[in-house]
Specification:
This protein has about 80 residues and is mostly helical. It has one domain. Helices cover about 85% and strands about 0% of the residues. The chain is elongated and about 55 Å long.
Length: about 80
C-alpha cells in the first residue's frame, strides 16, 4: 500500500506542476512563448541525440573483442 500512496502523490505533484506551468505559459507574450517553444524543441533534439549516442555506445561495448581504454587511445594519438 505504501507504493500506491507514493505513486498517487507523485502523480498529484506532477499534475500540480503541470497546471502551474500551463498558467505561466498562458501569461506569456507570443514572443516569449515562441522562444520557450524553440528552447523545448532544441532540448528534445539534444535528448534524442543523447539516447541515440547511448544506444550506439551500448552496442559497441557489447561487441566481442578487446576494449581499449580511452587513455591509451589518447596517448597513442598524442592527445592530452
Amino acid at each position: 500500500m505504501v507504493g500506491k500512496g507514493c505513486a498517487c502523490g507523485y502523480l498529484f505533484l506532477r499534475m500540480s506542476v503541470s497546471e502551474q506551468v500551463i498558467k505561466k505559459v498562458r501569461a506569456m507574450s507570443p514572443a516569449q512563448a515562441k522562444k520557450l517553444l524553440a528552447y523545448i524543441k532544441q532540448r528534445e533534439r539534444e535528448e534524442q541525440q543523447d539516447r541515440q549516442d547511448i544506444e550506439v555506445a551500448r552496442r559497441a561495448l557489447a561487441e566481442p573483442g578487446e576494449h581499449i581504454p580511452w587513455e591509451k587511445v589518447k596517448a597513442d594519438l598524442g592527445l592530452k
